[in-house]
Amino acid sequence: MSSATSPRILQRPDADWPGYRLLVREPLRLDCGVDFGPFTIAYQTYGRLNAERTNAILICHALTGDQYVADPHPITSHPGWWSTMVGPGLVLDTDRYFLICANVLGGCMGTTGPKDLDPATGQPWALSFPLITVRDMVRAQKRLVDHLGIESLFCVIGGSMGGMQVLEWAASYPENVFAAVPVASAARHSAQNIAFHEVGRQAIMADPDWCDGQYLEAGRRPARGLAVARMAAHITYLSEAALHRKFGRNLQDRNTVTWGFDADFQVESYLRHQGSTFVDRFDANSYLYITRAMDYFDLAAEHGGSVAAAFTGTGSRFCIISFTSDWLFPTSESRELVHALNAVAANVSFVEIATDKGHDAFLLHEPELFETLSGFLNGCAEHRGLHRG
Amino acid sequence: MSRSDALDFGLAAPQTVLPARDRLRRDLRIIADMIEPSARVLDIGCGDGALLAYLASEKGVDARGVELSQSGVNACVTQGLSVIQGDADSDLDAYPTDAFDVVVLSQTLQATRQPRRVLETLMRIGQRAIVSFPNFGFWRVRVALALRGRMPVTPLLDHHWYDSPNIHLCTIRDFVALCDEIGLRIEKSVTLDRYGRPFSLDPRGSLANFLAEQGVFVLTHGAA
After folding, report:
1. What is the predicted ipTM?
2. Domain containing A199 — which CATH number?
3. How far is CA A370 from the centre of its chain?
4. What pTM was computed for the model?
């Protein structure tokens, strides 16, 4: 992991990154009880808001995603994480819809997070940043949506943690959400998922360069810990079948094992690469805070022990999508969600897509996902009287 | 060209577009006619969504569906219908009581694991249920079994015994007896011959049970 051991320390580069910034002046009451603010929301938009302001779609990103849905990433220059989905004539058609994606609260791509300066001390927040929840992320997004003058979102869509935000939107602001599409998600984070997150957090905190969270002041960066966290997490995003298909037991640039601890196997080399490239674009403390937000997510607990109660009387149209080989957010969790929505007679569609690509399938070229989404969105557009632009 | 080829060709030739109702399968047409405009409808085993699409577009029905096959669900959602992947045995319990005006179970009852329980659930979640199923008392079925000594394969029961999803076949009289047993009132019944043409015979009589290839029943609460 050579590149992981020589961290590049970025001094507030986000000021130069492309996109919009909204300064929210009025503090936000967070679930942890803190009134937080002022704070900044960094966001991207695509397409045009129509005159009636009825064609806006909010895209919610996942744990390590960001607002650069369909733009090159400002650090890695990789194409946007949903560039196969968002664009003219694509499923999320920029000729037809106005798309918004904001970096989540606690993130590290421009929205206020632990790497930013605490105005009270002039030092990075680090661990004095308040604990945030998925609901807090959504409350912050609501401020943005209000600021953009959009009363009712045509659709809120997202995968994984993005799906959690979608559910939170539908539960917290039902009259502002016409359609909700949680993909590869769940109404709560499972014990197994919390366990994996804890492994990642412990890897970060065990890195001496983490410095009890004060690594920015110390001019250091817990790159090894963060890389290990990413490696462990990355395994959970793939299926055994996909790993086998991609790598099997193939060796990396060698004909025989080296009788040592080099990356003999391709799968090791791949994971090390995933880890080392991740640390260039992600802040370790953000990783702690956002994984924690996911762990705390439990829609039932927020609504008297019942997921159904979260959606009582909802008029939103739901489309739940899961993938057969996703063991991180398995179909059974989506089905529970479907049953909860059935219990309140909500308008819900549910599709399980057959794929061996695991949890990551929601980010990949998956034709059935695209077809399902376009069909669902077209149906909703018809019900909302949205016509092709 | 054989005679049957010529006939097939002749049937495929007309280019005129049929009205939406006429494009429906015959038994679905009969079911569609039994449903009031703007009703809340759940179609269990909705297949590719033909009935739901018709009801939604022509009758302004609030149309929902449940379908077991992935291809069916995808076909439905892709055309904008609200359909969930699931089955009649395990995915109906979550619905609240009287959630729907009409619950449709067409050509699906015989494929459920617990038909009696499914029927009871239909009547819990719906004000009315419309149930259609193939009649195992149909004369061609009886002939196949009695004279040929083989499990019948007919256009409606088009599987071999070893690959059939139809695990709980019944006759019309069996079905009527079950309705009586669980206290369901038969508001209306239509029997269809092997061309899908409706004819009116008392479903409790032996003639209907002999001549009908399938039955369509409208059930409501309360004994007859």
Report:
1. 0.85
2. 1.10.1740.110
3. 19
4. 0.91
